[in-house]
Write a structure and sequence with these properties.
With 277 residues, the chain is α/β, with parallel strands linked by helices. The protein has eleven helices and ten strands. 44% of the residues are buried. Bound molecules: adenosine-5'-triphosphate and magnesium ion. The site of adenosine-5'-triphosphate has 12 residues, from strand 2 and helix 1.
């Protein structure tokens, strides 16, 4: 019997592979992000997490596999079309217009939604200026949300790392995405900032975006915030499940702590998921 209660994933990758010449950065990775949920993605450095985001958003062409948004095949679409269809992201290495003001950086995000494109937003063409007054109000609303409204006139480059990460988040949210992809949003943040961010991220699904995919090294954040966690190791998905289950997973512990750790402590990890590559 087929269940009618299982929701369709909002975003899915199906056996996505990305090779950079001889280097297979992502190999046959399938993930599913559901409405109202946060999907965490963890994995050691160089595992292929950011590359997966780059493939989803059309920043790099994939080698094989498919990307689906609301069941629609968006594989190979250029970045601006993927953005318009409702996929927004933040970057591991913060990408802001440092000379532009805080609010202008958010307005650029809104232009992913507005009629004028990002280029005309940056060049401030007349068509863009007409959209600006409503855009300004909306941009300010997103700055309020992340607590940066008081700094709206400052150049983005003058903000601290933590504030810049919040600004990137405001910009991505201003595009009113269906899916928000966050690439290590807590990198460079202190403990207090990370906790505030974590609380904020948990409020996003269903409110500010339908679902969130969260790449994060901060294990406490990812385990607390995520409904499900997928683990990538050396380009392959080695586990996918509820946070508590993934934390106990033998292959995950091996990926993080090394096989030696498991050899010393055989009581850990009840359930090997897949063979190592
Ligand atoms: N544009 C590129 N050209 C060539 N190799 C790349 C490119 N982008 C990523 N890689 C390589 O692909 C592999 C996966 O990199 P990726 O940045 O996706 O890892 P990651 O899981 O995000 O790591 P981290 O946790 O350090 O951010 C790495 O070996 C990286 O050097
Ligand atoms: Mg990365």
């Amino acid at each position: 019997m087929t269940s009618t209660t299982t929701p369709r994933p909002l975003l899915a990758t199906q056996a996505v592979t990305k090779a950079f010449h001889a280097l297979v950065a992502v190999f046959e990775v399938s993930i599913e992000a559901y409405p109202g949920q946060i999907l965490g993605i963890i994995g050691p450095n160089g595992a292929g997490k950011s590359t997966l985001f780059n493939v989803i958003t059309g920043a790099v062409p994939l080698t094989a596999g498919r990307v689906l948004l609301e069941g629609r095949d968006i594989t190979g679409l250029p970045m601006h079309r993927v953005a318009r269809l409702g996929v927004a992201r933040t970057f591991q290495n913060i990408r802001l217009f440092r000379e532009m003001s805080v609010v202008e950086n958010v307005m650029v995000g809104r232009h992913a939604r507005g009629r004028s494109g990002i280029l005309s937003a940056v060049l401030r063409l007349p068509s863009t200026r007409r959209e600006d007054s409503t855009l300004l109000d909306r941009a300010m609303a997103y700055l309020e949300l992340v607590g940066l409204a008081g700094r709206w006139q400052q150049p983005a480059g003058a903000l601290t790392t933590g504030q810049q990460r919040l600004l990137e988040l405001a910009r991505a949210l201003a595009a009113e995405p269906k899916v928000l992809l966050l690439d290590e949003p807590a990198a460079g943040l202190n403990t207090r900032e990370t906790e505030t961010l974590s609380d904020f991220i948990q409020c996003i699904p269903g409110e500010l975006a339908s679902s969130v995919v969260l790449i994060e090294h901060d294990m406490r954040l990812v385990m607390r915030a995520s409904h499900r966690v997928a683990v990538i190791d050396r380009g392959r998905k080695i586990a996918d499940g509820p946070p508590a289950e993934v934390q106990e997973d033998r292959a995950v512990i091996a990926a993080y702590l090394g096989d030696d750790f498991l050899a010393r402590d055989t009581s850990r990890g009840r359930r090997p998921v897949e063979g190592r590559p």
